[in-house]
Every structure is written in structure tokens, then in C-alpha cells.
Write a structure and sequence with these properties.
Length: 427
């Protein structure tokens, strides 16, 4: 029998019509509503609904009704739009209650979603459902000079949606290749503003990490839960600054709320650990952190209480390093990495093609004589290895020199010699 078609992600994103439909304890919604009024001083019911990203009818109006009944808030007037337009202020009794709520957590943003719903939506929009043909891969890498052999390695690696190890000498575009792989993963994912676990708030959406397709406003497609934001599939990059602590829930003792770690923000997309081996933490310890997520496709994060929560690990994780992989990790770990791709120095034909492309892009006339002089005099004669980054950097040096000399940039011996002298360090 064929496998059943999994439910569409929108199945789990229906707009709640009651407090129970939110999947949250009503007390949490009461606290959020109270804190918003406390900070605003005076605010309308519709503005509260907009800030909570919850519907007014059936949810926010019920929360406000409870707060009025308990004498935590009162109505001061109306802006003329029915009950939605009623203005609310906090009472003295409500101020005490708000302070108690703030002592637990100062979070006062969009209402969170339940962990169970987050898991369901993440699995319904998994990166594993995205596949590429060789034509699509060629198109995605058309801006680079890259061999068919390399494309045949990259395509299956991207289709695996699992793990990639990019290694090789510096200056040959490992990071650029990773960025191009990430660009293959078109489409979108829904990301919640925040999660709730045991009344703890975990903030997930990050304007610096996530590229929102929608404007971050309360307006939403009819019938869909506004606590979720439609974003491009994420591409999260971290480098030498990465620590083990940053890969778990990050608790802010002032706000008493959590920030999701990098890999959780990357769910549905790609997570690149650049300059692997340059982190302050030992490479072996950093890689051991990924053994369970890579094998089980789940990650375990720890709350301040010591409770561990299970989160989907729906990420194409990529490691990029200039160091020898065998000096960093053992064979046992490398076996867990689905695809290992060496990014070697370009051949002379590839070096020429890169040089030609960039010269054309920089509006510098390409001259075979000048290029041959560069290769023979400054590479072959001095036994210098070509790097994919050299054409860009040397041509930029030529442009800088030509501007200073008030001449047109060209591949003359004089400009090439000066560019090489300025760019390479003499040992």
C-alpha cells in the first residue's frame, strides 16, 4: 500500500476560536493581556488582540472579560468600534497582579504556540520534501566556475537534507558553495514567534536570522493562526564564535525567557558551521553534540528546571573547514556525515575562466598576454598555488591602482606586478 499523504501544515495552523483552541493555559493568556495593558497604560481591545496575534472574538474578549470580573482592569471609554474599541487600563489590584506575572517572566509579545503544534508543523514542512534535479543544481551554480564532477557531488548532498562536510585549502569558495546550496532550498516555512513549555517562553522568530515573507503585522491569510510568520527557508551561519552553550536554550535572567538555539532557528533550512575547528571549544566536543540529532533527527534541549524537551532536528547541517578533517575528528564521526566534499584549488583552465568572468564583471578588458604573464611570472615561477579567490582580489587591486594613477584598469605588466606586490605577503 502507498504511504498515506501527510497532513498539510495549514491543518495545524487554523486560527483559534476559543481559549482552549490556542493550546495554552488560559492563565498564561490572562497574564500576557495584563502585562500588555500594564506597559501601555491605556489600550484598546483590538490593539491587544493585534499585539497578541490572537483573534479578538472568542479569545481576547474572553480574557478581558475575566480580567474585568477579577477587577484587574477597567474600561475607560471607547474609540467607537464596538467592544473592540473599548479602552482598558489597569487597576491597583491589577498592577499588583501584573508585577507578580512580570516576576515570572517579562515576556509581553505575541502569544506563544504549544510545543506539540510546533513539532507537527515542523514535520509537515520538512526540508526533506525538497528535491533538486541536475538542471536546477547547474542553474543555482551558474554564477560560479565549477566542474561537473563537483556538481555531481553537491546535488546528492543537497538532496539528502542531512549533513555535509566541506573541506580543503582556504580561498576556494567553500562558504560560497554552502551559500549556493542554501539558495537551492526555495520555498517557505511557518515560524512561530514563540513557544510555551511548562509556562516557560522560548522565543523562536528572530528578525536577524529569519527572512520574513510577510510583514510582521497582525494581518494574516483568513483562517490561519497569526502567531506564525511565513518566512523563507532559513540559512543560519555561525563561525569561530560558536560555543556549546549557544547550542542549547539560552536563558535571559532579566527577561526570564529563552532564546531558541541556532539549530532550532534553522529548522526547515540549513545550518552552516563555518571555520570549523577555529572555535574555542574542542572540535571533538562540538561534533559529539551532533551525534544524536544526526542519527535520530531530534534534538534535546534543557530548561532551567532541568527538564529536557524534544525538538525536531529538521536541518541540513554543513561543516566547513580549512583544516585537515582527520586532525579534527575520527572516522566514527565522519561516517555519520552523509556527504564529504573536498573543495580543491582550481585547475589552470578553471582559474582562467574565473579570471575572465570577474574581469568582464569589473569591465576590465581580458588580455591573454597579460593573463599568461601573471601565471608564469607570479605563480609558476614562484611555485604559488592558484586559489579561486585570487582573480577577484587581484583585479580589485588593479582597479584601486588605476584610480590612483588616473588611468584605465587593464592587464598590463606594470599593474599586475603592483597588484601582486600589494596583495601577497613576501616571506
Amino acid at each position: 500500500m502507498p504511504s498515506p499523504i501527510p497532513p498539510a501544515r495549514e491543518t495545524y495552523l487554523r486560527e483559534p476560536t476559543t481559549l482552549a483552541d490556542t493550546g495554552l493555559n488560559p492563565g498564561l493568556i490572562y497574564d500576557l493581556t495584563l502585562k500588555l495593558i500594564y506597559f501601555a497604560g491605556e489600550v484598546s481591545g483590538q490593539v491587544i488582540a493585534d499585539q497578541l496575534r490572537l483573534p479578538y472574538t472568542g479569545v481576547v474578549d474572553r480574557a478581558l472579560g475575566f480580567l474585568i470580573k477579577e477587577e484587574f482592569v477597567s474600561i475607560t471609554g471607547s474609540t467607537g468600534f464596538g467592544e473592540r474599541g473599548y479602552n482598558y487600563v489597569i487597576t491597583q489590584k491589577g498592577s499588583v497582579k501584573a508585577q507578580e506575572a512580570l516576576a515570572r517572566t517579562q515576556y509581553a509579545g505575541p502569544a506563544p504556540v504549544a510545543l506539540e503544534t510546533y513539532v507537527q508543523v515542523t514535520r509537515a514542512q520538512t526540508i526533506g520534501q525538497v528535491h533538486f534535479t541536475k538542471t536546477q543544481v547547474r542553474e543555482a551554480f551558474a554564477h560560479l566556475t565549477i566542474s561537473e564532477t563537483m556538481l555531481r557531488r553537491i546535488g546528492p548532498a543537497a538532496n539528502s537534507a542531512r549533513s555535509i562536510f566541506l573541506y580543503g585549502p582556504p580561498g576556494n569558495g567553500k562558504t560560497t558553495i554552502a551559500e549556493s546550496i542554501a539558495a537551492l532550498f526555495k520555498g517557505d516555512v511557518y515560524i512561530p514567534y514563540a513557544l510555551e513549555v511548562d509556562s516557560q517562553i522560548i522565543q523562536v522568530f528572530d528578525a536577524l536570522s529569519h527572512n520574513s515573507i510577510e510583514q510582521p503585522t497582525p494581518e494574516k491569510a483568513e483562517g490561519l493562526d497569526a502567531r506564525w510568520l511565513l518566512c523563507r527557508r532559513p540559512f543560519i551561519v555561525t563561525g569561530g564564535e560558536l560555543t556549546l552553550e549557544a547550542l542549547d536554550l539560552i536563558f535571559d535572567p532579566i527577561s526570564k525567557a529563552y532564546q531558541a538555539p541556532h539549530q532550532m532557528k534553522a529548522n526547515g533550512g540549513m545550518f552552516l558551521i563555518d571555520d570549523f575547528g577555529r572555535q574555542q571549544v574542542r572540535p571533538r566536543d562540538l561534533l559529539n553534540r551532533w551525534i544524536v540529532p544526526l542519527e535520530k533527527r531530534v534534538d534535546y534541549l534543557t530548561l532551567q528546571t532541568g527538564k529536557k524537551i524534544e525538538i525536531p532536528f529538521d536541518v541540513l547541517i554543513a561543516f566547513s573547514t580549512n583544516l585537515n578533517p582527520l586532525d579534527l575528528v575520527d572516522d566514527a564521526f565522519l561516517r555519520r556525515i552523509r556527504h564529504k566534499i573536498e573543495v580543491a584549488n582550481p585547475t589552470w583552465d578553471e582559474f582562467r575562466e574565473i579570471f575572465l568572468r570577474i574581469a568582464t564583471k569589473r569591465s576590465i578588458p581580458f588580455e591573454d598576454e597579460g593573463f599568461k604573464y601573471l601565471v608564469l611570472e607570479h605563480y609558476v615561477k614562484v611555485k604559488r598555488e592558484p586559489k579561486a579567490v585570487h582573480p577577484r582580489d587581484l583585479l580589485d587591486q588593479i582597479i584601486d591602482l588605476a584610480k590612483y594613477l588616473e588611468i584605465e584598469p587593464r592587464l598590463s605588466k606594470e599593474l599586475i606586478d603592483a597588484a601582486v606586490e600589494a596583495y601577497f605577503v613576501k616571506m
